[in-house]
Amino acid sequence: MLVLLPPSETKRDGGEGAPLDFAALSHPALTRVRKPLVRRVATLARTPDEMMQRLKLGPKLAFEVERNRLVTKSATMPAMDRYTGVLYEALDAPALDPAARAFAAEHVRIHSALFGLVGAGDPVPAYRLSHDSRLDAPSIKTVWAEAVSKELLAHRDELVLDLRSEAYVHLGPVPPAASRTYFLRVVTTGDDGVRRALNHFNKKGKGELVRALVQHGVDFADVDELIAWGAASGHRLSLAADGELVLEV
User: Fold this and answer.
1) N or C: which end of the chain has fewer CB within 10 A?
2) How far apart are CA 58 and CA 205, in angstroms?
3) What is d(CA 197, CA 37) in angstroms, rounded to the nearest whole number?
């Protein structure tokens, strides 16, 4: 089983790990894409005003430029601890026990705009780059789409839960051959009985689901096993007519 998560704009400072080591990241085939992209970002950060404009940053976020300038030199920490925001607050990776963290490191991937797919335990520095950041050509989508899709194709025989936002799905579409991949849609049922998709609060639902999955520590073989576990553990999962996996919160 593989669980795909989106990144977050916000990230924790610091870390106790050594500076960025591409060899320490999962999916080594992506190194050929990672290295030139990291160089582009670090070089652009030497011109702070331009980088702030490219990343659409206001004065209060000027520190993000310095993060990018030092991206190959600053300390690292596990990706699951680096990212913050609603989803990652619900996941609360720093509070997971060692067994759950080990399961996350093996089965959870975070789709970074800078590094592509990284394992939850991979050591990454703080940085700022989004799916729609405007760098010089080629675009971020052009850089990543084919490379990430190829990595996902390698997992076509596994159950893959795609919890990414639609913007990051476009940065690495699931290939048609990966027929056991399920995009997760988070919904709620109103007083009128109508199911509606959630926006902001869908992130909390995703984070809580992933936390429960890694704490349970079972490598589910298929979606039916996953749905049955959800029914027994208070996570209302079902398959929609279009093949998407639905989480009702």
Assistant:
1) C
2) 30
3) 34
Q: What is the pTM of this model?
A: 0.94
Q: What CA–CA distance (Å, rounded) separates 55 from 60?
A: 13
* Contact yes or no for 118/112 (Cβ under 8 A): yes
Name residues whose C-beta falls within 8 Å of residue 98's C-beta, 6 or more positions apart in sequence: none
Structure tokens at 139: 């675009």
Counting Cα atoms < 13 Å in the Cβ hemisphere of 199 gives 0
Distance CA 124, CA 115 (A): 9
The values of phi and psi at residue 46, to 5°, are -75, -10
Residue at token pair 């109103």:
190
Burial track 144-181 (b if 16+ CB lie within 10 A, e otherwise)? beebbbebbeebeebbbbbbbbeebbebbebbeebebb
CB pairs under 8 A, 24+ apart, for 29-34? 29/147, 29/150, 29/151, 30/115, 30/116, 30/117, 30/147, 30/148, 30/151, 33/116, 33/143, 33/144, 33/147, 34/114, 34/115, 34/116
Whether 19 and 75 have beta carbons less than 8 Å apart is answered as: yes
Give 175's DSSP letter. Answer: P
> Could you report the average pLDDT of every consecutive run of 10 residues in the chain (249 residues)?
96 97 98 97 95 91 96 98 97 98 98 98 97 89 95 94 95 89 90 69 94 98 96 96 92
Token reading at 80: 């699951």
How do strand 236-239 and strand 245-248 relate by DSSP bridges?
Answer: antiparallel
Instruction: Please give the residue range of the domain that contains residue 48.
Output: 2-248
